[in-house]
Amino acid sequence: MKITYTARKVNLRDNFKERCEKKLAKFKKLFSDSAVANVVVTLEKNRQTVEVTIRDNNMVYRAESTQSEMNDALDRVVDILMRQIRKNKTKLEKRIKSGSVSDLFADEPIAEEEPEETVYEVVRRKHVPVKPLTVDEAILQMNMINHDFFMFTNAETGIVSVVYKRQDGKYGLLEPSEQ
Predict the structure, then answer these.
(1) Residue 30 contacts by C-beta under 8 Å, 6 or more apart in sequence?
(2) Phi and psi of 84, rounded to 5°?
(3) Helices (H), 70-144
(4) Is the pTM for the entire model greater than 0.70?
(5) How far apart are CA 55 and CA 32, in angstroms?
(6) 87-99 confidence digits (pLDDT tens)
(7) 68 touches 33 (CB < 8 A)
(8) Which structural domains are found in the chain, ordered by start?
Protein backbone atom coordinates (compact mmCIF):
# COMPACT_ATOMS: atom_id res chain seq x y z
CA MET A 1 0.00 0.00 0.00
CA LYS A 2 1.39 3.38 -1.00
CA ILE A 3 1.04 6.06 1.69
CA THR A 4 1.18 9.80 1.03
CA TYR A 5 1.33 12.39 3.78
CA THR A 6 -0.02 15.94 3.85
CA ALA A 7 0.80 18.22 6.79
CA ARG A 8 -1.16 21.40 7.39
CA LYS A 9 0.26 23.87 9.91
CA VAL A 10 2.41 21.11 11.43
CA ASN A 11 5.68 19.29 10.73
CA LEU A 12 5.42 15.52 10.67
CA ARG A 13 8.16 13.63 12.47
CA ASP A 14 9.62 10.42 11.13
CA ASN A 15 8.43 8.49 14.19
CA PHE A 16 4.80 9.50 13.41
CA LYS A 17 5.21 8.30 9.81
CA GLU A 18 6.68 5.00 11.04
CA ARG A 19 3.82 4.59 13.51
CA CYS A 20 1.31 5.37 10.77
CA GLU A 21 2.87 2.81 8.41
CA LYS A 22 2.84 0.20 11.18
CA LYS A 23 -0.84 0.88 11.97
CA LEU A 24 -1.90 0.83 8.31
CA ALA A 25 0.04 -2.42 7.76
CA LYS A 26 -2.86 -4.12 9.57
CA PHE A 27 -4.97 -3.42 6.51
CA LYS A 28 -2.44 -4.81 4.02
CA LYS A 29 -4.17 -8.20 3.81
CA LEU A 30 -7.52 -6.52 3.12
CA PHE A 31 -6.36 -4.38 0.19
CA SER A 32 -4.55 -4.99 -3.07
CA ASP A 33 -0.99 -3.83 -3.73
CA SER A 34 -2.35 -0.92 -5.78
CA ALA A 35 -4.16 0.58 -2.77
CA VAL A 36 -3.32 4.20 -1.98
CA ALA A 37 -3.66 5.74 1.48
CA ASN A 38 -3.68 9.51 1.96
CA VAL A 39 -2.91 10.72 5.48
CA VAL A 40 -3.72 14.36 6.20
CA VAL A 41 -2.64 15.88 9.53
CA THR A 42 -3.89 19.35 10.53
CA LEU A 43 -3.05 21.40 13.61
CA GLU A 44 -5.60 23.98 14.81
CA LYS A 45 -5.49 25.56 18.27
CA ASN A 46 -3.77 22.65 20.04
CA ARG A 47 -6.18 20.19 18.41
CA GLN A 48 -4.69 17.75 15.92
CA THR A 49 -6.83 16.19 13.24
CA VAL A 50 -5.78 13.04 11.41
CA GLU A 51 -7.71 12.00 8.31
CA VAL A 52 -7.00 8.77 6.45
CA THR A 53 -8.51 7.98 3.05
CA ILE A 54 -7.78 4.61 1.46
CA ARG A 55 -8.65 4.06 -2.20
CA ASP A 56 -8.61 0.54 -3.62
CA ASN A 57 -10.46 -1.06 -6.54
CA ASN A 58 -12.89 1.84 -6.94
CA MET A 59 -13.81 1.70 -3.23
CA VAL A 60 -13.13 4.53 -0.79
CA TYR A 61 -12.61 4.09 2.94
CA ARG A 62 -12.33 7.26 5.03
CA ALA A 63 -12.03 8.15 8.71
CA GLU A 64 -11.16 11.31 10.62
CA SER A 65 -10.49 12.10 14.27
CA THR A 66 -9.50 15.18 16.24
CA GLN A 67 -7.59 14.77 19.50
CA SER A 68 -5.12 16.75 21.57
CA GLU A 69 -2.32 14.38 20.50
CA MET A 70 -1.53 13.32 16.94
CA ASN A 71 -0.87 9.68 17.92
CA ASP A 72 -4.19 9.44 19.78
CA ALA A 73 -5.99 10.76 16.72
CA LEU A 74 -4.20 8.19 14.53
CA ASP A 75 -5.18 5.35 16.87
CA ARG A 76 -8.82 6.51 16.79
CA VAL A 77 -8.81 6.72 12.96
CA VAL A 78 -7.45 3.17 12.63
CA ASP A 79 -10.16 1.94 15.03
CA ILE A 80 -12.87 3.72 13.01
CA LEU A 81 -11.59 2.24 9.74
CA MET A 82 -11.45 -1.27 11.20
CA ARG A 83 -14.99 -0.92 12.58
CA GLN A 84 -16.29 0.33 9.19
CA ILE A 85 -14.71 -2.59 7.36
CA ARG A 86 -15.89 -5.15 9.93
CA LYS A 87 -19.43 -3.70 9.93
CA ASN A 88 -19.71 -3.88 6.16
CA LYS A 89 -17.63 -7.04 5.65
CA THR A 90 -20.45 -9.37 4.66
CA LYS A 91 -21.99 -6.83 2.31
CA LEU A 92 -18.61 -6.18 0.71
CA GLU A 93 -17.89 -9.91 0.33
CA LYS A 94 -21.25 -10.45 -1.32
CA ARG A 95 -20.60 -7.56 -3.71
CA ILE A 96 -17.07 -8.80 -4.51
CA LYS A 97 -18.39 -12.30 -5.26
CA SER A 98 -21.10 -10.90 -7.53
CA GLY A 99 -18.51 -8.83 -9.37
CA SER A 100 -20.35 -5.55 -8.91
CA VAL A 101 -17.69 -3.76 -6.84
CA SER A 102 -16.02 -2.43 -9.98
CA ASP A 103 -19.39 -1.08 -11.13
CA LEU A 104 -19.92 1.09 -8.06
CA PHE A 105 -18.07 4.11 -9.43
CA ALA A 106 -17.33 5.44 -12.89
CA ASP A 107 -13.71 5.38 -14.05
CA GLU A 108 -13.48 9.11 -14.67
CA PRO A 109 -12.13 11.24 -11.80
CA ILE A 110 -14.16 13.87 -10.02
CA ALA A 111 -13.27 17.26 -11.48
CA GLU A 112 -13.48 20.62 -9.77
CA GLU A 113 -14.33 23.79 -11.66
CA GLU A 114 -14.00 27.48 -10.96
CA PRO A 115 -17.00 28.96 -9.11
CA GLU A 116 -19.49 30.96 -11.18
CA GLU A 117 -20.43 34.50 -10.22
CA THR A 118 -24.07 34.59 -9.14
CA VAL A 119 -26.11 36.14 -6.38
CA TYR A 120 -25.14 33.20 -4.19
CA GLU A 121 -21.47 32.40 -3.89
CA VAL A 122 -20.69 28.86 -5.03
CA VAL A 123 -17.32 28.06 -3.47
CA ARG A 124 -16.94 24.56 -4.84
CA ARG A 125 -18.49 22.58 -7.64
CA LYS A 126 -18.03 18.86 -8.16
CA HIS A 127 -19.03 16.65 -11.03
CA VAL A 128 -20.00 13.34 -9.55
CA PRO A 129 -20.27 10.27 -11.75
CA VAL A 130 -23.50 8.51 -10.81
CA LYS A 131 -23.67 4.80 -11.51
CA PRO A 132 -26.83 2.73 -11.14
CA LEU A 133 -26.97 1.32 -7.60
CA THR A 134 -29.61 -0.15 -5.36
CA VAL A 135 -30.56 1.85 -2.28
CA ASP A 136 -28.67 -0.63 -0.06
CA GLU A 137 -25.51 -0.27 -2.16
CA ALA A 138 -25.77 3.53 -1.98
CA ILE A 139 -26.13 3.43 1.82
CA LEU A 140 -23.12 1.10 2.04
CA GLN A 141 -21.05 3.48 -0.10
CA MET A 142 -22.16 6.48 1.99
CA ASN A 143 -21.11 4.70 5.17
CA MET A 144 -17.76 3.63 3.70
CA ILE A 145 -16.78 7.23 2.89
CA ASN A 146 -18.23 8.43 6.20
CA HIS A 147 -20.55 11.05 4.68
CA ASP A 148 -24.07 12.05 5.67
CA PHE A 149 -25.48 11.81 2.14
CA PHE A 150 -24.75 10.10 -1.18
CA MET A 151 -26.06 10.83 -4.69
CA PHE A 152 -26.66 7.93 -7.09
CA THR A 153 -28.84 6.69 -9.93
CA ASN A 154 -31.45 4.37 -8.50
CA ALA A 155 -31.08 1.05 -10.36
CA GLU A 156 -34.77 0.23 -9.78
CA THR A 157 -36.27 3.53 -11.00
CA GLY A 158 -33.50 4.94 -13.22
CA ILE A 159 -33.69 8.39 -11.62
CA VAL A 160 -31.04 10.32 -9.71
CA SER A 161 -31.67 10.01 -5.98
CA VAL A 162 -29.97 10.86 -2.68
CA VAL A 163 -29.71 8.72 0.45
CA TYR A 164 -28.95 10.51 3.71
CA LYS A 165 -28.38 9.69 7.37
CA ARG A 166 -31.06 11.08 9.67
CA GLN A 167 -30.40 12.41 13.17
CA ASP A 168 -32.16 9.38 14.66
CA GLY A 169 -29.56 7.11 12.99
CA LYS A 170 -31.95 5.81 10.33
CA TYR A 171 -31.71 6.56 6.62
CA GLY A 172 -33.75 8.69 4.26
CA LEU A 173 -34.16 8.66 0.49
CA LEU A 174 -34.74 11.76 -1.65
CA GLU A 175 -36.33 11.23 -5.04
CA PRO A 176 -37.43 13.93 -7.48
CA SER A 177 -41.11 14.29 -8.30
CA GLU A 178 -43.07 16.45 -10.70
CA GLN A 179 -45.47 18.94 -9.14
Answers:
(1) 85
(2) -60, -45
(3) 70-87, 89-98, 135-144
(4) no
(5) 10
(6) 777 666 666 565 5
(7) no
(8) 2-87 (3.30.160.100), 99-174 (3.30.505.50)
